Amino acid sequence: MKTNKIFTLLTCFALVITSISCKKNDEVKPDEKNNITLEFDNQVGSDEMTLGTGSYKNSSGEDFTITTFNYFISNVSFKKSDGTVVKFPNDYFLIKQSDSESFEATLKDLPVGDYTEVSFTVGVDSARSVSELSQRTGVLDPASYGTDNMYWAWNSGYIFFKFEGTSSVVPSDAAGKRVFQYHVGGFGGMTTKTINNLRTVTLPLPTSATVRSNIAPEIHLFVDAAKVFNGTSTLNLATTFMVHSIGAAVPIADNYKTMFSVNHVHNDVQ
């Protein structure tokens, strides 16, 4: 009987110690930080995006294939459950369907906490667009894009979004190809009369991203290219197939703002 009582007491003591230990491990320490990653999964409706070979239809029933799908992400911010917002104004990412290594955008040293919302800009803000070349390195280097050039030398500005492909409804060009090109830029400049095609996307998270010293969350986003044709307005390839001017790109920018959604959040212990 005494042995059983001693065993029971030892068991209870162990449970108390374990409980205290767990509470200490779960405790949020404000001075600690960790990374958080946005993972962009480009799709067309519910279909996986495949460059060159994938065949899709837009909301008007027009067939198309995709050869290029690139966009800039910048000015990322995260909102905590208490309303606090943490901003990353100096991080710029170029997501390219042709480069799987570009699909993940990692933001470093986010303070620990429970985050319920993510926000970001599609494009490159005006301040950085007109800054000295020494401040535009990495993905912002105008000379770094090769065949995926994302900078208008003639317009001194970045192409925020580049969507190219082919469609049977597009008229043939001189080479006999039926090509469409949507190039969107235009950061607004210094006057209210200048067109601004920068778009901010704000998304609630289905579950909180719990940043801890041992947890670096991953937020998985779906990016639906079909929304480019039917986000807030309907675009037909038969009539709108070659867009390179800032003014003509406004409906495209309004549409692609709607193509982002959060599918799920990973809060895996490292």
Write the layout of secondary structure elements.
Blueprint: H1 2-26, E1 33-44, E2 47-48, E3 56-57, E4 63-80, E5 85-96, E6 104-111, E7 113-122, H2 126-129, E8 151-152, E9 157-166, E10 179-185, E11 199-211, E12 218-224, H3 227-230, E13 242-243, H4 250-256, E14 260-266
Parallel strand pairs: 1-12, 10-13
Antiparallel strand pairs: 1-2, 1-6, 3-4, 4-5, 4-7, 4-9, 7-11, 8-9, 9-10, 12-14
- The unreliable regions are 1-25
User: N- to C-terminal separation?
Assistant: 45 Å
**What's the SSE pattern?**
HEEEEEEEHEEEEEHEHE
Instruction: Give the beta-strand count.
Output: 14
Radius of gyration: 24 Å
Principal-axes geometry comes out as globular
Q: How many domains?
A: 1
The portion of residues forming beta strands comes to 35-45%
Structure classification:
mainly beta
Write up this protein.
Strands 3, 4, 5, 7, 8, 9, 10, 11 and 13 form a 9-stranded mixed beta sheet that branches. Strands 1, 2, 6, 12 and 14 form a 5-stranded mixed beta sheet that branches. The chain is built from 4 helices and 14 strands. Residues 1-25 have low confidence and may be disordered. Helix content is 15%, strand content 41%. The protein is mainly beta. The protein has helices spanning 2-26, 126-129, 227-230, 250-256; strands at residues 33-44, 47-48, 56-57, 63-80, 85-96, 104-111, 113-122, 151-152, 157-166, 179-185, 199-211, 218-224, 242-243, 260-266. A hairpin with a 5-residue loop joins β3 and β4. It has one domain. This is MbnP family protein. Residues 34-234 form the Copper-binding protein MbnP-like domain.
